Known about the structure:
With about 250 residues, the chain is mainly beta. The chain has 2 domains: about 5-120, Metal Binding Protein, Guanine Nucleotide Exchange Factor, Chain A (Beta Complex); about 130-240, Metal Binding Protein, Guanine Nucleotide Exchange Factor, Chain A. About 0% of the residues lie in helices and about 55% in strands. It has an 8-stranded antiparallel beta sheet, with no helix packed on it. β18 (about 180-185) and β19 (about 190-200) form a beta hairpin. The model has no long low-confidence stretch (mean pLDDT about 95).
Amino acid sequence: MGDVQRGRVKVETSQKRVRVYLGGHVVADTAHPVLVWESPHYPTYYLPTADMQAKLEPNGTTHRSPSRGDATGYDIVIDGITAKGAALRYHDSPIPELNDLIRLEWNAMDEWLEEDEPVYVHPRDPYSRVDILASSRHVRVEIGGVTVADSHSPRMLFETGLPARYYLPLADVRMDLLQASDTHTSCPYKGTADYWNVRVGEAEYADYVWIYRTPLPESQKIAGLACFYNEKVDIYVDGELQERPRSPFS
Length: 250
């Protein structure tokens, strides 16, 4: 299939083996998954119908996409387990490469494997890269006019399409101003993050700081370091106030 674009939707065949599990059973096993950029931020897997091992039962629903056309909704059924509304198929899409593929709802499945490794949240984008570099730049973070972090040994994380992030040793952070949050998020490149709220005086700033305590292997250099949303705080690098970036997290 190669690399195909129709309108704003990019379609590309991946070379990874992808397996999908539900209730311990293999729903799909394919060496020919297709990446479809339904949104510009990350792709979704569409899988060949020939590589489905679960039964697809039409559930009477249809879904309309301006770019992909009309899709029929299916329940996934395997060994007495049913995942309702977990699959879509575009039988007559204006993007013909989709017509023989099944789109599985990511969170309706129990596990996704790329080759033999679990992947979480969404497929890894082959055009996204994460570089983590040690630095001696002076990074100071202010919230509400109060310095909440001051470090000369940041790790700088550069991720395609996102602002540079400054990960700081906890010893350089005002931990007395942080309160653990119930928020946790996951990233297919970095792992699961835990969050803190920041209290400055009477003001509380919810989920302004996060930490990857046990990141995925490719992001080990940020293990145990704190990062602030530079969209929301004042960050000085070598004494110069940085402009707050615009991003999906602004």
